[in-house]
Write a structure and sequence with these properties.
Strand content: 5-15%
Shape: globular
Strand order of the largest sheet: 1-2
Largest sheet: 2 strands, antiparallel
Number of helices: 8
Distance between the termini: 14 Å
Radius of gyration: 20 Å
């Protein structure tokens, strides 16, 4: 049976360069909005569904500049807090606080991006998810990410026991994130509304984990990273399907 999967077409080096540029701009704060808008426009131009459906963005500078710059600023605040705060538990608490505030602005960015996306059939999309819902997902990721640091903060003796507990906590974190990421992506997809057809996400937890592992292995050689990144993005886009027009 024919499927209407999302296709991503780009040159590996150009995609890698634009991704690096977007990341650096976010860290530099001031150029982030301009670079983000250019990246989003280019990124959308590289996407299409098999039936020809495409999207464009109507996002503007006034909407995006505040939240994006706050995300970049909070990144540096999070780093600075690790030097300004004493004690592993206090450092972890400061990092979690910065992460929660950053998640709020990330939610604002995601909602604005979706709400200003229009299909070539004229439908304007809308993100129906709420901040409390988004926060619950982020709380799960933050709790899992904090496990290794919390295990190190517990002064276990001997050192071998402390190392074993840290390794178990790290394994629990990786396993938990792997189990959480696919339902999270499906929730985001389900919250995107507008038009008469809803997008579905098909990847399984196992397939996504294998792809992450393949990406990690493919990135061991620096010169292969652009092609490894592009391969992962193409696979990820193919997991999104839009029902065929009848």
């Amino acid at each position: 049976m024919a499927t209407n999967r999302l296709v991503f077409e780009a040159e590996a080096l150009k995609f890698f360069g634009r991704t690096i540029g977007m990341t650096l701009a976010l860290f530099l704060i001031l150029p982030a909005p301009t670079v983000f808008l250019r990246f989003l426009s280019w990124y959308y131009s590289c996407q299409r569904f098999a039936d020809g459906t495409r999207v464009t963005s109507e996002l503007n500078m006034a909407q995006i500049q505040g939240p994006l710059r706050m995300i970049g600023l909070l990144f540096w605040v999070s780093i600075g807090s690790q030097f300004a705060v004493n004690g592993p538990l206090m450092k972890q608490a400061a990092q979690i606080l910065c992460s929660v505030v950053s998640a709020y602005f990330s939610f604002q960015v995601m909602r604005m991006v979706v709400d200003t996306t229009r299909t070539n059939s004229g439908s304007l999309l809308r993100f129906a998810g709420t901040w409390p819902q988004f926060l619950r997902w982020q709380a799960g990721f933050l709790a899992l990410g904090a496990l290794p640091a919390l295990s190190e903060a517990i002064a276990l003796e001997p050192a071998g026991l402390r190392l074993a507990v840290t390794l178990i906590a790290s394994l629990a974190t990786l396993t938990g994130i792997a189990l959480l990421i696919v339902p999270y992506l499906r929730w985001i997809t389900a919250m995107v509304q507008g038009g008469s057809r809803g997008v579905t996400f098909h990847a399984s937890t196992g397939s996504l984990v294998l792809r992450y592992l393949a990406f990690g292995l493919g990135s061991l050689l620096i010169f292969t990273i652009p092609w490894t990144l592009l391969s992962f993005m193409k696979w990820l886009c193919r997991q999104y399907e839009l029902p065929l027009r009848t």
